[in-house]
Specification:
single chain; binds zinc ion
Amino acid sequence: MGEAPQGVKIFNGEILIDLTGASGTFHIEWFRSKTDKKVDSGVIAGGDKRFLKIPVYRWCNSLSLLRADQSRRCRMRIEDLKLKKHADNLRAVATIIWEDCPRPTQELYFETTEEFAHILWCDPHAFLVACIMLAFHFGEERILIEGEICPDLQNGLNTVMNWMRLWWYEPTKNLVEIEGKRRFKFQRPRIPDRAGVFFSGGIDALATLRANRISYTSDHPGSIKDGLLVCGLEIEERSVFGYVLDSMSVLAKDAGIDIIPIDTNIRSLGPETNEDFWGNFWLTEFMGASLSAVAHAFSKRLTEVSISSCHDIPNVIPYSSHPLINPSYSSSSLRIRHEGITLSRFEKTKLVSEWDLALQHLRVCNKTKLYQADLLNCGKCEKCVRTMLALEALGVLQKTGAFPVREVTEDLVKKAVFLSRSNVPLYRELIKPLREAGRQDLVHAIEQKLALFDRPSRSLRALLLQPIIKFDEKRLGGRLRKGKRLISSSGIWAHH
Ligand SMILES: [Zn+2]
């Protein structure tokens, strides 16, 4: 065994590599000086501490830690971009090679039907936007992409990573460096302006389309002409996608837009079977990126694509689909818009309810496995019941066949509604219109739920007050407690 490098300690048969003070990524290599033979033992990131077994190979007589950027250029690669037939459909495909992260080499695709094959192309932006947040999350240092990258998008992706780091990570987390040719040349003349929208059939998307129809004349460049409907994101089953496509096609015809059916395996870039990962990562970091990636694959035809916001301004939270995030996925040829931020969920529902056909084809339920032809809402889950409450308040629940039943009861609210920090504002805004609609029974059921939600549990209260109590004792000599401004005769203060 040669001399141990700094930060390396040798124990019985094991070696501790301690890089808590270092930055960057290091390759671990065992080395026999006589023969120059090397054994690669993977990588370790600066800031990490790890025990390694000393290889049993006797000929290994030294260990080296090589800074990744000094040894070999270590990077995620996006390469071999090509169009490929897949049955009657066409796919834009790229090979994704992970380097720092132990994930298999993968093929990422965006697919559409024969009818729209002529507008699909291997835009490198589509693959870069699809990969960037995963590369960042899994700690890849760099992405090398085949093809030219617009500096607008490159700057935007840096902006996104900075926000995500602020919201979800340690401030020391490295941003992913993007390596690709800068795009200098642009097609002149540019393609004609054409706007699209992600058209899922939900309240947000339908409200965006209806608001667009009300505000824009059909010859305005912002007038929506295409609806993008994607299989492989929240809808995964092919048969279910067929039901949704059939239902949305009726609305598309009525609104005078084309529906572009799209399939993608973008979710396979992460550990697909891990529901915790997807439940969290999708909402916090990936939704806006996934949708924007899909949009870029159609940049041959579309010059702007709208993503409908999930939150209105008073309720904006750090989120993957956010007014500061989605527009950052734009390039100079495709603008990503974040729409509907000035309308509350109830206001959006009202807008949609004035479009009768939309009321019949509404799709709000996330329980896609329960979908049937012509019935895309279970009528029993929290989201279904919340939407039914809004429609009841608007006096149109009786008119819609989108749910299995046409009435909402106090009992249903009690059973189906589970409050969380994110849906509480959506229930609060229903109280006044439901009261005005004479449904005091539903108001009562909602108010009961809200009261339970607002009342912090004893342990939670203890948890929240504990730091204040400590501060009071240490720094204020118990003056806060004595002042009794926050004190009741019982409760946790009484015990201190
Ligand atoms: Zn449902």
